[in-house]
Amino acid sequence: MSAPPLNVKAHVDFIAALDKKKNDYEYWLTEQAVLNGIYWGLTALFLLGAPDTLVREDVIQFVVDCWDSKTGGFAGNIGHDAHLLYTLSAIQILATYDALDRVDTDRVVEYVCSLQLPGGAFQGDRFGEVDSRFSFCALACLTLLGKQDSCDVPAAVDFVVRCKNFDGGFGSVPGAESHAGQVFCCVGALALTNSIDKHIDRDHLGWWLAERQLPNGGLNGRPEKLADARPPLMLPLPACPSARLAAPFPHADTRAHVCTFVLRMRRPWLPQVCYSWWCLSALTILDRLHWISAEPLSNFILNAQALEDDQYSRESANKLSGQALDDAQDHGGIADRPGDRPDVFHTLFGVAGLSLLKYPGLEPVDPLFCMPLKVTQRLGLAKEKY
Ligand code: GRG
Description:
PGGT1B-like, 4 strands, 17 helices, metal-binding, 2% strand, single chain, two-stranded antiparallel sheet, Glycosyltransferase, two-stranded antiparallel ribbon, repeat, mainly alpha, binds geranylgeranyl diphosphate
């Protein structure tokens, strides 16, 4: 399948406009995770070669304002609860802008270490959820701050190793199904602690990851998912003028928005652009990137761009919303898969995946931190080999 080239300008404009979309339903659905969104957008902008698009000082001040002085961690938005997921994003943003001196890093380290449990796992926040994602977040954060040794590293590694399955993949906790997202986190945690070869059979896991590629070139997140079965989704609900999220569907109101959002998040049988990142980064770390067919995957990602002449999303959204779409807002960005609406999460992971595939003109990305390679080189953290 052929594909259009990467439209750098459209994606830069799309990210730059995100902060102006405060009347959009999507904005408020993700209001608790704004810091993640800024990390995704900022990193994509750096990789696209447009690092000065956002106002540096405003972004840094927002990050500082998300710091929770009670715990020492960062919340996803001002006044919210601190969590490891947002703390990593905050540290990544500050590191990218070379502004780590703007926070009390000792207190951040204290916060991260306070979340480690006796068995080595990390909980995400004070409410106690345990997940191998949080092991990665904690270790990445401490490493970026030059303080990995402040936590119990052998115990952290031990927990991650206990998440490994017979198929070579990793799950969220010991015994949980292998999933590409968790594979990224566990491979990352082991790479951060220089323990890949002690605990991973590169060929075994490389094979599992390479098998994620489907006939259309895209990757899925776990085995036994077919490539071509969309569920029928016709909800007989009255139309709503603000229907944007539910764009490709004929009936839409708030309930339809929510159903559509949930179902879109859960169409696991279709490949998704973000797995280009979760799988490719792990394959790069394992030195098995060449086990993926690069061109069909690049085309899958490029076809998921929302471009100005993408009649599919524009026409269906127009029909539903009953109002003209604002050009500046409704093109640019990359969707989870071709034909869907774009978002900043898939824009980053699409661009970062293309960067790993050496798409011309993109800045190189560090496969371990998902940050511009120039930044991790400046911090002395970029690795030649894992
Ligand atoms: C610094 C890049 C970076 C990340 C920080 C939070 C984190 C560490 C990593 C998240 C890894 C992860 C679990 C990604 C998966 C995201 C995703 C698309 C989940 C969908 O899961 P399901 O079960 O769908 O809804 P599948 O496709 O698995 O059936």
